[in-house]
Design brief:
The complex is a heterodimer of chains A (293) and B (377). Chain A is α/β, with parallel strands linked by helices and 293 residues long. Chain A folds into two domains: 189 residues, P-loop containing nucleotide triphosphate hydrolases (Rossmann fold); 94 residues. Chain A has a five-stranded parallel β-sheet, with helices on both faces. The longest helix of chain A has 19 residues. The two termini of chain A are 42 Å apart. In chain B, the strands form two sheets. In chain B, strands 2-1-8-7-6-9-10-11 form an eight-stranded mixed β-sheet, with helices on both faces. A three-stranded antiparallel β-sheet of chain B has the order 3-5-4, with helices on one face. The longest helix of chain B has 14 residues. Chain B has 377 residues and is α/β, with parallel strands linked by helices. In chain B, helix 1 packs across helix 4 and helix 2 runs antiparallel to helix 3. The chains are: A alpha/beta (293), B alpha/beta (377). The interface between A and B is large, with 42 and 37 residues.
Chain lengths: 293, 377
Amino acid sequence: MPKRSAETVATSPEAVASRLAASRYLADESLATAIFLAIRLGKPLLLEGAPGVGKTEAAKAIAEVLGRDLVRLQCYEGIDAAHALYEWNYQRQLLAIRHAGEHEVDIYDDRFLIARPLLQVLKAPEKRVLLVDEIDRSDHEFEALLLEFLSDFQISIPERGTIRATAQPIVILTSNRTRELAEALRRRCVYHWITYPDARREAEIIMLRAGDVAEATARAVAAAVRDIRARPLAKPPGIAEAVEWANAATILEKGGSPWPEAFRRAIGVLIKDEEDLSCIAPEFGKIVEEALA
Amino acid sequence: MSPAALPQGATPFLGFGRLLRRYGFSVAPEQVSGFMQAVTLLGPRSMADIREAALATLAPPPDRRDEFEAHFRSHFYGSTAAVVGGEADEETRIKDDGETSEQEIEVVRQEQGGELSSASEQLSVREFSRDSDGLAAFRRKLATALPARRSFRTVRTHARGKLDLRRSLREIVSADGDIPSPLLRRRQTVPRKLLILIDVSGSMKLYTSDYLKLAHAAVQGADRAEVFTFGTRLTRITSALRIRDRDQALARAAAQVDDWDGGTRMGPTLLAFLSVPRFSAFARGAAIVILSDALERGDHAELETALRRLSARAFRLSLATPLAGDPRFRPATAALRAILPVLDDLVDGSSIAGLTDFILSLARPAPAAAAIWRRVS
């Protein structure tokens, strides 16, 4: 896909939504508006929501629409600057010193610098989109580091000086809300809380994402999944699980299982928790029947 | 810029920010200017555009979204219908001392008899007697005695570590390419979180004041300790206990808890604890000590579910019951028998001395509770 400037893509929320749909991502009006605003205001986009509502997928779709590479920084407890910003390639530096002998060698040259995601984006802001995934998993110190990066878009390397972004990079942050993020971080961003889509939109997503699933099947899956999510489960099924379930049931049906039976046998791809499974099992027949009706 | 210098059309947006601040939303000046910029960018073609812009830039917390929408309607449409959350009978009320509002989590409950603890919510406030005991030593020892995990961060060390290439290279450069003795670095160890859940129901009346003193010492001594009380409600009292002076801290905590000496709904309150992501994150990888007699009113299925989920998150799940102070005690009630397999420890909680010794020994491995009590009986 050709590289496009951000402004030509984001002319209005509707234009953003239709471009995203062309990249096989169906965004509702509110999400499209948030993406539009983030691009036009030049602010990072913070997406929060339950696991499996398509936060990471949204970031991938945005990168695709803009024709840029997605640079992903997966956060975890204990992530530090060496994994997010940059690191020196010590082995090569040592070798270079050995190799140089009497000659002079600049061991802080570019070829000894390993660029981590934040630096990679800083170097080519027009070619890359930064995704900081599951920021709620990292610790508070890292959040502060990120805050600094997001406000100035610059990184200081003691041996080299400060590197600045030539243009405002597009940054997307996602969070599962396992802990409250710092107010300062929320304030800097355009914020959107992603909810599960309604049954009609979810059916459309299933049609778009799954291989070849009949429309009636997609509708039934969307209705059943909606019903299942309303129950007190430890891990409610996400959209990806619903798509997988529709796929699996279709395959089973082609293999000779009749309809309600195919749904029941494919349950393993939808609910992946033994406890939840035993909680759903007694009512499962009823749920599917209602969804198929 | 003074409000007078702004164009006439901008006033409602400025006023909306001010309105939100009055109702306790945190709205920064840059967010209000972002809101106005966003409205300009979007046209605005309709009220829906203004609403989307407000949601995206003013970022209301998801749990206060309805309240936010109500304020939006009253400010921009002039409708005064306020949103008031209905208070259902069987909801477990959660009180977090960090915030002013109370959240309500609905908990499904099935009741099947059970007469040991009463169902009625008896709300009363308690005062604590002042006496001194040997908790100071416990407080001092706790920081180093808690179980530890390996952190991702590293520290400099002189022995037992991996080569620290970054620092070594600096040394090499400053020594003109000579390699002096290599410098080392090793993964740091950090103490695990300690989560204390205190039962404040009527059947635990004799012990709760002692338990709160113990919890105060724990919060003071450990880096990351969290304390909740539960009876018919769930209350977070950690920040009250952070006050250094014990009498002040306990008085503050006593005022925060509304369900002293009432009935017990241990299962539902623990499930409510787990359903708040921020709270259940405290439990992840933590040493959890529940101070309760586990005399559950009614059906114990929920208690079992709650404890199983807790133990799946915890590093170690311990139940200290004052009943175990009696040498004839056996985990014979249906509830205790059901939860015994998921417990790591079931110990005596009748004295502060016994409890402090137990908490200080959490880092040492011990056989599972079920194995110990099978041997006894």
